[in-house]
């Protein structure tokens, strides 16, 4: 996709990219004109922002959080100081897929505040196995109907595991885990000998073997708001408003990662 670059003599650089692609441009009598497809257009007269040649575009800004670049950090939140909500995507040298939808923000003291979610992948990529969202459970005792995984009564299922988390299993020699399904219920009734997990199987899940499988789970990335792990965070914010808006700062609450 072609873009139009704008040079600003005040900053001696190219600060902006516009989505329109004119055939010809000219300034005349304090107005800016362009030609596209044989038609003549005068700019800055349309009250609808980001509308060029009858096509509506979004506003985007891309920048980077890079304080203390030698430290591995977790980017937990996004705080926007301005008068509108912007959706955001966030990636680092370790993780990709961080995002904040415009509807996620809460307005606090004139700023818009939200937790960074991570979409994750199904099944998980190898890079996700080292994150805090993964936790081990133990070996199963039996698998019934391919959907009910029972464990020894000494196996503690009353952890931070929740409905909606993804259940995985690994077979000897316990290399790459395989997706078993999504957890739909956790049943614990030790006096009556019940200690199991029920899953919903959907592609690309793999059938669970009856024995010798070690189980683990990965928290639902969107629900848990674990943020993005990395030495730096590259973010792109997007706004779909068609009226003039202001954006002053983009901030992130960052904490050092302690593996």
What's the gist of this structure?
With 259 residues, this protein is an all-beta fold. Helices cover 2% and strands 49% of the residues.
Separation of the first and last Cα atoms: 42 Å
Strand content: over 45%
- Helicity, as a percent range: under 10%
Q: What structural class do you assign from the helix and strand content? A: mainly beta
Shape verdict: elongated
Strand order of the largest sheet: 16-17-20-19-18-21
Largest sheet features: 6 strands, antiparallel, barrel
**Nearest-angstrom radius of gyration?**
25 Å
Number of helices: 1
Looking at the structure, the CATH topology of the largest domain is: Elongation Factor Tu (Ef-tu), domain 3
| Domain module tally | 3
> What is the arithmetic mean of pLDDT?
88
Which properties best describe this structure?
single chain, 259 residues, mainly beta, Elongation Factor Tu (Ef-tu), domain 3, elongated
Describe this structure in words.
It is built from one helix and 25 strands. It is an all-beta fold and 259 residues long. The chain has three domains: 4-57, no CATH class; 68-116 and 229-256, no CATH class; 126-223, Elongation Factor Tu (Ef-tu), domain 3 (Beta Barrel). A hairpin with a 2-residue loop joins strand 3 (24-28) and strand 4 (31-36). The protein starts with a strand and ends with a strand.
